[in-house]
UniProtKB/TrEMBL annotation, chain A:
Full protein name: Cinnamyl alcohol dehydrogenase 9
InterPro entries xrefs: ADH-like_C (IPR013149), ADH-like_N (IPR013154), ADH_Zn_CS (IPR002328), CAD-like (IPR047109), ER (IPR020843), GroES-like_sf (IPR011032), NAD(P)-bd_dom_sf (IPR036291)
GO molecular function, one term: metal ion binding
Cofactor(s) listed in the protein's UniProt record: Zn(2+)
This protein's record includes keyword Zinc: yes
UniProtKB/TrEMBL annotation, chain B:
Domain Enoyl reductase (ER): 23-352
Protein name, as recorded: Cinnamyl alcohol dehydrogenase 9
InterPro entries associated with the record: ADH-like_C, ADH-like_N, ADH_Zn_CS, CAD-like, ER, GroES-like_sf, NAD(P)-bd_dom_sf
Cofactor: Zn(2+)
TM region positions: none
Similarity comment: family membership: Belongs to the zinc-containing alcohol dehydrogenase family.
Keywords: Metal-binding, Oxidoreductase, Zinc
Amino acid sequence: MAGTENSQKSFGWAATDTSGLLFPFHFSRRENGSDDVTIKILYCGVCHSDLHSVKNEWGFTNYPIVPGHEIVGLVTKTGSDVKKFKVGDRVGVGVIVGSCKTCDICQQDLENYCPKVIFTYNSKDQDGTKTYGGYSDIIVVDQRFVLRIPDNLSSGACAPLLCAGITVYSPMKYYGMTEPGKHLGVAGLGGLGHVAVKFGKAFGLKVTVISTSPKKESEAINRLGADSFLVSSDPAQLKAAMGTMDFIIDTIAAVHPLAPLLGLLKMNGKLVTVGLPDKPLELPIFPLVLGRKLVGGSDIGGMKETQEMLDFCGKHNIIADIEMIRIDYINTAFERLAKSDVRYRFVIDVANTLASN
Amino acid sequence: MAKSPEMEHPVKAFGWAARDTTGILSPFKFSRRATGEYDVQLKVLYCGICHSDLHNAKNDWGLTPYPVVPGHEISGVVTEVGNKVKKFKVGDKVGVGCVVESCRQCDQCNKDLENYCSKLVLTYAATYTDGTPTYGGYSDIMVVNEHFVLHWPENLPLGAGAPLLCAGITTYSPLRHYGLDKPGLHIGIVGLGGLGHVGVKFAKAFGSKVTVISTSINKKKEAIEKLGADAFLISRDEEEMRGAVGTFDGIIDTVSAVHSLSPLLSLLKPDGKLIVVGAPEKPLEVPIFPELITGRKMVAGSMIGGWKETQEMLDFAAKHNILPDVEIVSMDYVNTAMERLVKSDVKYRFVIDVGKTLKPQ
């Protein structure tokens, strides 16, 4: 019977079909092994990937699915080989909970690109059982994939950093978007985009938010600290900004045209896509060739870099802007998320609202 | 009233031009400016036939101002220099590539990236700073600002070396800029034509393992035995392509026809780079998820190179004996050459022996 493969009882909310509706769900976790840490989950962020997954929009969901990969909690058990953590520590778990640990890629601390990577949910663990995510009471994780949360960051508002945060931090480092004074465009102002604005400002960049919604302008500038706001559906605004940006982080998940964004880049400019559209996008080649521009992808980050990102947030007091919800609000939260009706991440107050029946 | 091409400038010139979208070239009288204080006048000896010449002659890109005298892979000898020219003297062997002027003061120009200057002036089918049209190397003489004239390395043949000035720099520059010039990398070259065959030679000279990726099995023997490629991958063979997934550090895509990027992206290792140097006229589809994102891969463009890098490339080619494979033709063969070029029936670049076969009519 699904969910009874392991020996530690666990309880969460799961989706069982493509309606994506979640319901209470009993399952189990493995015993805490020598390298493992068991975590009582306090908070879990609601990532747009959770929504894509519960509805099987990418076609690889294996029901029942317990989503959630932006987890903050407290250590309740540590295995005999665990030195980095002790009971009571406040820790985080992100998008991945395992990798082969031995290949070239893992050895470069890029576990996220390991061909044998194990995702926090909807993946097959090393013992062959299914992984279940953070919309649940506890989780058992190999210590390599557990992160320390900086003391000064509040748990709930820190949770989204574990996916949204690293998803924008990693490419900003990799593609060189950290030189003070350069001009960064952030396309899309949602969970990923709003964190990208905060990181951009912390790196000393001039930041322009690129959005189709004029009503987001006031918040973008007054609350998030963006320097300017570009309504991408306004041809005059787009034209005036052509060739002015050194880089653009494109967080838009829907299928959208790349040509206008490429036009905003200076020569040698870089467009990095971190949103996950479900169809290929059209890429006009002439602007790439004539301007030596590039379009690159990026996929979360390795564990070392995720810890570095959290420490960076601790140093610069960067947290996500969240709306705290009860677990039983999750289906409504998903409906609102589909309409981008959230500023800018829902976070489930798991510990206080997830009650086993 | 605008002056006729013959009367525009004081120095008579003669070449072959296309006058309409048939792209057929024929003798054409025009004129060149007097040699200014910073100018170099050269007698054209050889000019490579670049695929761009064909696109321009037929107005495939919708930008051609007829009449057009193509040609931007030019080698020749200096016949006159302006009184402030320091770098060249009469009798020097020189080259001219795709660019004859830029603004010289913008960020790009200041970084020796004149090819990315927003005011760059192309060697032909463009407008010079004096408002007159530029005419290319299918002609007897050229007058070029010394900044855009290249020293011709002593041991480099003028005929076979001419295509380096476009095909050469177009593949050399991205291999350097995107870090694909380190020994031991696995580089793919897509398309085995003028650009591709030179790309193979440069990548081998950088110490890479080189795989040619092509639709034509009949190019395999030459690719390996003559050009020195290490392997050959038929892009239409699904099983071969599957076997090569995730094995390339970089791929230079020289194909100008519309084609799918997805199979090429899947060939790349994580952090791999797909560099497009061909110029398809329609957008290509790029699968953001999963290909681009789950491997942190990139698709990037590149266009020729700046003057400094072009000189560096010529010197590198001379030092490592890198020469394009050419078929030397006479000027009056040019229309036939263009027809054959459409069918990719050339190994791998035509070069016009302008010096000996361009005769005023």
